[in-house]
C-alpha cells in the first residue's frame, strides 16, 4: 500500500475527516479503499462507524457518541503508517445501458457542436471509456464518474434546469454521471439510463460502490422501454463483470 501525506481534522462533533493530496488520482482512491479495508478488518471491526470515501478524502462518523478527536487522530496516523496486507478487494465493472435518442439527450447536439464531433462520435467516445466511481452523493445513488475523454469535457450549464428527469446521463467538466431521481441540475444531458440506480426498498439501495468501474453501452428506444418494464417488475439484471476474477 502506498503512503501519502495525509491530514486529519474534526468534521463536527461526531465525525473526523482524513484528507489525501488534493487531486483526482485513481492511485489515491485505491489507497483510501485499502485503508478502509484495513480499518474495518483490524481496527474498527468491533465498533459501529459510517465510513464515507470520496475522491481524496475519507469521513468517519460515529452517530452514537462524540469523537475524542486527539485520541482518534493519533490512532488513525498509526494505523495508516502500519504495514497492511490487503485481501484483494473484488473489483467490479458495471455495464449500464443508455438510450442516446435526442428525446432524452436534450444537450447532445450542443455537446456535439462544442466538441467538434458528430453526435455518433460523441456517443462512441462516451461508451468506449471505463469510468471510475470517485464518489456517491448529492442525491442518493448519484455517482461521480471520472475518466471522461478530454474531448467531452464540457462545462456545466450556466443556468441549471429546474427538473432533470430520473435516469438522465450528463456531462460536467471532467465527470459524467446518472441522475437517480428527478432533480434540479446543471449537467449537459446526453441520454437516459434505463437501470434504476437507487431503490430504498432493497437491502442494498445502491448496487454500485466507490472504486467500482462503469461502462455505458448504447441501446435503441425499444430496448430502453423493455428495460424500464423489467425494472418495474424487478426482473432486470444489471451486467456485472469481476475484473480481478
From TrEMBL:
User: Which Gene Ontology terms cover its molecular function?
Assistant: 5-oxoprolinase (ATP-hydrolyzing) activity
Q: Which UniProt keywords apply?
A: ATP-binding, Hydrolase, Nucleotide-binding
| Top-level EC class | hydrolase
- Ranges where the Carboxyltransferase domain occurs: 6-208
Q: Which Gene3D superfamilies match?
A: 3.30.1360.40, Cyclophilin-like (2.40.100.10)
Q: Does the keyword Methyltransferase apply?
A: no
What are its E.C. numbers?
3.5.2.9
Does the UniProt entry include the keyword Nucleotide-binding?
yes
Q: What is this protein called?
A: 5-oxoprolinase subunit PxpB
Source organism of this protein record: Pricia mediterranea
Source organism lineage? Bacteria, Pseudomonadati, Bacteroidota, Flavobacteriia, Flavobacteriales
- Name the encoding gene, please: pxpB
Amino acid at each position: 500500500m502506498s503512503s501519502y501525506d495525509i491530514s486529519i481534522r474534526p468534521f463536527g462533533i461526531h465525525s473526523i475527516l482524513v484528507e489525501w493530496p488534493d487531486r483526482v488520482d485513481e492511485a489515491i482512491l485505491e489507497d483510501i479503499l485499502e485503508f478502509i479495508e484495513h480499518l474495518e478488518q483490524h481496527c474498527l471491526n468491533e465498533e459501529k462507524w459510517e465510513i464515507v470515501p470520496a475522491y481524496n478524502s475519507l469521513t468517519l462518523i460515529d452517530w452514537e457518541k462524540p469523537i475524542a478527536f486527539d485520541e482518534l487522530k493519533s490512532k488513525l496516523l498509526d494505523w495508516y503508517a502500519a504495514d497492511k496486507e490487503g485481501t484483494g478487494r473484488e473489483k467490479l465493472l458495471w455495464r449500464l445501458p443508455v438510450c442516446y435518442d435526442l428525446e432524452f439527450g436534450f444537450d447532445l447536439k450542443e455537446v456535439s457542436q462544442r466538441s467538434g464531433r458528430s453526435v455518433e462520435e460523441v456517443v462512441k467516445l462516451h461508451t468506449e471509456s471505463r469510468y471510475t466511481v470517485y464518489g456517491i452523493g448529492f442525491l442518493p445513488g448519484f455517482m461521480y464518474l471520472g475518466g471522461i475523454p478530454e474531448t467531452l469535457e464540457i462545462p456545466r450549464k450556466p443556468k441549471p434546469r429546474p427538473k432533470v428527469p430520473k435516469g438522465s446521463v450528463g456531462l460536467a467538466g471532467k465527470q459524467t454521471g446518472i441522475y437517480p431521481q428527478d432533480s434540479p441540475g446543471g449537467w449537459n444531458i446526453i441520454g437516459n439510463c434505463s437501470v434504476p440506480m437507487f431503490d430504498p426498498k432493497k437491502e442494498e439501495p445502491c448496487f454500485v460502490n466507490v472504486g467500482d468501474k462503469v461502462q455505458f453501452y448504447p441501446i435503441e428506444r425499444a430496448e430502453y422501454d423493455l428495460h424500464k418494464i423489467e425494472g418495474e417488475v424487478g426482473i432486470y439484471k444489471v451486467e456485472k463483470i469481476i475484473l480481478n476474477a
